[in-house]
Specification:
Layout (H helix, E strand, L loop, with lengths): L32 H16 L3 H19 L4 H29 L3 H39 L5
Helix pairs in contact: 2-3, 3-4
């Protein structure tokens, strides 16, 4: 009877019971920050490409920034608005990541995972609705302070 190997055997590797270092991973060279940022920006680029909802969110974000500029929002209001824009974009990126994983699955797995797509889409919807409420509060207060609405 052969002894059991508790360590995983990778491609092209053979188990040697006398080798105590077998299965231990060599420490990876730490990545530089520049590489980490390059990968992160590549992820944003991949998340945005081919997802039409990003264009809608981007268009609304431009409108929000232009309106905030015209209404001369104060720094706290700017922080709220920019935070909400980032919140929606982040939710959309997570949704895109889940959709990308979903499209790589076989048909049987897709049937079991369909709920994950619905949950991710619901998260984007919640982020959008929450941001719309915050934006409405900021803009209505700003318009009221300018005596443009009663």
């Amino acid at each position: 009877m052969e002894p059991l190997n508790p360590k995983p055997i990778g491609r092209g590797m053979k188990w040697n019971p006398d080798d105590s270092s077998f299965g231990t991973a060599k420490p990876k060279k730490p990545r530089r920050w520049r590489e980490k940022f390059r990968e992160a920006f590549r992820g944003i680029k991949r998340g945005v490409r081919g997802h039409s909802s990003f264009y809608v969110h981007f268009f609304v974000a431009v409108l929000v920034v232009a309106t905030a500029f015209v209404l001369r929002c104060d720094p706290i209001e700017w922080c709220l608005l920019i935070g909400c824009i980032g919140f929606v974009f982040t939710a959309e990126l997570f949704n895109s990541a889940i959709e990308t994983l979903f499209h790589g699955l076989d048909a049987q797995s897709k049937n079991r995972i369909q709920g994950c797509l619905d949950i991710a889409a619901g998260a984007v919807l919640m982020a959008g609705l929450t941001s719309a409420i915050v934006g409405s509060i900021v803009f209505v207060r700003r318009l009221a302070s300018m005596n443009l609405i009663n």
